[in-house]
Amino acid sequence: xxxxxxxxxxxxxxxxxxxxxxxxxxxxxxxxxxxxxxxxxxxxxxxxxxxxxxxxxxxxxxxxxxxxxxxxxxxxxxxxxxxxxxxxxxxxxxxxxxxxxxxxxxxxxxxxxxxxxxxxxxxxxxxxxxxxxxxxxxxxxxxxxxxxxxxxxxxxxxxxxxxxxxxxxxxxxxxxxxxxxxxxxxxxxxxxxxxxxxxxxxxxxxxxxxxxxxxxxxxxxxxxxxxxxxxxxxxxxxxxxx
Length: 242
Fold this sequence. Notes:
This protein has helices spanning 44-51, 92-102, 108-117, 131-143, 161-174, 189-192, 213-220, 225-232; strands at 6-15, 18-28, 33-37, 59-64, 67-68, 77-80, 149-153, 181-185, 198-203, 206-212. It is an alpha/beta fold and 242 residues long. The chain is globular and about 45 Å long. Strand 1 (6-15) and strand 2 (18-28) form a beta hairpin. Helix 3 runs antiparallel to helix 4. It has a domain at 6-83 and 149-232: Rossmann fold, CATH 3.40.50.300. The strands form 2 sheets. Strands 6-7-8-3-9-10 form a 6-stranded mixed beta sheet, sandwiched between helices. Strands 2-1-4-5 form a 4-stranded antiparallel beta sheet, covered by helices on one side.
């Protein structure tokens, strides 16, 4: 029976006097690739960290796969932060072995397939990888777990278009929608669009809109851009739409 994989119930998150999320409620079904879009400071990363159990809400409840999203929810969630998280002195192979040793759901065979797909040299030190190479390795590590929920925070930020394209192709090629849901925050709206099933639009810590991409295309044609401009405003300048 289908159930909501992620549920936010009147969730707010404050940092001192700053409100990052403001009374947010939504549900996400399993088996989807879901984009979270919004200007800088809209609450995208906070939403992901709450889902991963890395932050606790100031008020409200976050439920993932039927369980409260706390630190122990890491068995249900594979989280890729925007910042580099891998030990720089490891080789690529050592990074894979390390993840395999700490996560019981890590699929080493899938990781090796993804390394080949991404043309990552297994003997190279992480520290010596290009920025794009480091992101691709982080994607490999996050997506090689069999956790039902994968969270990717700004994986395309600061990369050139060819690298972004290869990362999106890898995302599409290696996500199994019968087993996993992916939630991805991004500014690269037009490039990630072909991979998305659903979109959450955030602004000033509130959900402005949540909809299926198919519904949006039915109303706005073949692109999310016009929809995005309508729900977030034409001056959402930090979003890249070209």
